[in-house]
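In practice, a research group might receive sequence data for several interacting partners and want a quick structural hypothesis before committing to experiments. The following worked case mirrors that situation: the sequences arrive first, and a predicted assembly follows.
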Amino acid sequence: MLALLKRDLALATRAGGGFGLGVAFFLILCALVPFGVGPETSALRPIASGILWVGALLACLLSLDRIFALDHEDGSLDLLATAPLPLEGTVAIKALAHWITTGLPLIAAAPVFGLLLHLPAGAMPWLLASLLIGTPALSMLGAFGAAITVGLRRGGLLLSLLVLPLYIPTLIFGAEIVRRGAEGGSTATPMLFLAGITAGVLALVPFAAAAALRVNLR
Amino acid sequence: MSLLAVHDLAVARGGLRAVEGVSFSLAPGQALILRGPNGIGKTTLLRTVAGLQPPVAGRIELAEDAVAYAAHADGLKGALSVTENLRFWAAVFGGGDIGPALAAMDLTHLADRPAAALSAGQKRRLGLARLLVTRRPLWVLDEPTVSLDAESVARFGTAIRAHLGQGGAALMATHIDLGLAEARVLDLAGYRAKAGQQVRPAGFNEAFA
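A structural hypothesis for the assembly, expressed as tokens:
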């Protein structure tokens, strides 16, 4: 399992691996918003938490189709399916690799992008906490979508349509944490909901994704 | 005790039965070559034995984690070197030294080269070297000699014979003579599925199969 994680991380960080693409996309998005709605603090501050979360979600989406598609093309997926690793474990590891290469850089960069959107300093810790708790669910749900669409030509678009609705609960509670944090309110309730969603997704989705892969490998 | 026993097996591709009524068994040290015209279902049969798809009818008796499968695609990552590719598969299949496998397929001098810079035949040799590091008894091979030159085919034949000598077995679809005189040949042409047969059991639902 560790070998698979290492290989996926090595592949992501080498030429053509797409590492950093998500963060660059996140940056562009956050830089475009002030051009669209105007640079005034009064205009940006109320929407900053929502924009940051939507941006993180879209940046995460960019690299989802690579999770299984490349391995399917070169036959690795067939070989992994016959390997001693359970397919559920393979799914979980590949989602983890996706999170490390996409989610973690987003989390690290988010405070800087928060400044671009005039997010109050008091909300920064909550932004970090909500992304840290929420983004693993994004990667895992994305792995499920990637497992369903593996082997389809131009499956990337279908993948977005399938996965984005599944991201809604995470988005609602994640943005709510940041909004409440910015206003100095209590964040306990949305935090617990977000953590619950992530825990449920991490526990259940690997099985669903592995089942989808088995059907697609036939 | 046989490594693999197949009883009255029928396999389907795209919802259509390909071959049916196939039975054979493989004991340690034996090799079986599948022959038959294009489209008869050799690949489908091999994928079924490897566990990648369920049989339509019949039984496959096989120890768990016994199969090392090699198909048309070698499962190589172009961005990784030959050593890294092979070491990855060795680690997935439970460790082991990759040196002998590199030597057996004559890849030692290419060890540090990225897989993307290999020729088609060299990639194939790397794909076959993967079989050696899996340390699994039953090799299931689908056209293993594609793009290999004569010398490499002979080299691979030697590797298979060594594998058989260590108590392994091999089931393969190939049209090329690997120099395995002891291998049995099964011609699938006689097992072609008859038209009009019920492909799926009653109540079959593709979504939940």
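Before designing any experiment, note the following. The first helix of chain B runs from residue 42 to 49. The domain at 4-208 of chain B is CATH 3.40.50.300 (Rossmann fold).
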